[in-house]
Amino acid sequence: MNKSEINISKFLSLVLRHQPETIGIQLDQNGWTDVNNLIEKVNNYGIKLDRETLSHIVATNSKKRFAFNDTLDRIRASQGHSVEIELGYTNQKPPEILYHGTSEKSVQSILNTGLEKRNRQHVHLSSDIETAMKVGQRHGKPFVFKVLAEQMYNDNFRFFISDNGVWLTEDVPIKYLKQNDE
């Protein structure tokens, strides 16, 4: 993606995950909104967007943040919402270990409280260390926790996997966290 498309992608993340009211759109209970209406409202906001560009952003976003429905007339963010929606994902058994990338400055707080969803609907987990490292790098020097996901699942925690492969859960208590060198 070029710089303009990256900026549009970031703006779409804002309106499809956190603040749809910014441009006057509404998300349905599953986070979907009409594509034509989205394009119109984004353009009214002063950002140039057409269907071809939107399709390119959805197809090439490295994190696969957005998804079209089967008929390509509705769009939503794949996960990461702070607005209340039901993504419709079903509980799935995770792998034995998942990973959470953060910055070194957040490690002590996480060791005190565990992983909390805070203003989002879920805690985001990765299935590989490399992805977790990339996530952690966004916030400073990266640090990766191992999450004992299978043990959590066996203890009746629910896990979901988003359309773009991000594992989601409500929270991760401290006892299920291991520092990556443990």
Question: Short description, anyone?
Answer:
By secondary structure, the chain is an alpha+beta fold. It has helices spanning 3-18, 35-44, 51-60, 107-113, 129-137, 149-154; strands at 33-34, 66-68, 74-77, 98-103, 115-116, 123-125, 142-147, 160-161, 167-169, 171-172, 177-179. It has a three-stranded antiparallel β-sheet. A three-stranded antiparallel β-sheet has the order 4-7-11.
Strand and helix layout:
Blueprint: H1 3-18, E1 33-34, H2 35-44, H3 51-60, E2 66-68, E3 74-77, E4 98-103, H4 107-113, E5 115-116, E6 123-125, H5 129-137, E7 142-147, H6 149-154, E8 160-161, E9 167-169, E10 171-172, E11 177-179
Antiparallel strand pairs: 1-3, 2-3, 4-7, 5-10, 6-9, 7-11, 8-9
Number of helices: 6
CATH architecture of the largest domain: Alpha-Beta Barrel
**Radius of gyration, whole Å:** 17 Å
Helix content: 25-40%
Strand content: 15-25%
Mean pLDDT across all amino acids: 91
Class per helix and strand makeup: alpha+beta
Count of distinct structural domains: 2
Distance between the termini: 38 Å
CATH topology of the largest domain: ADP-ribosylation fold
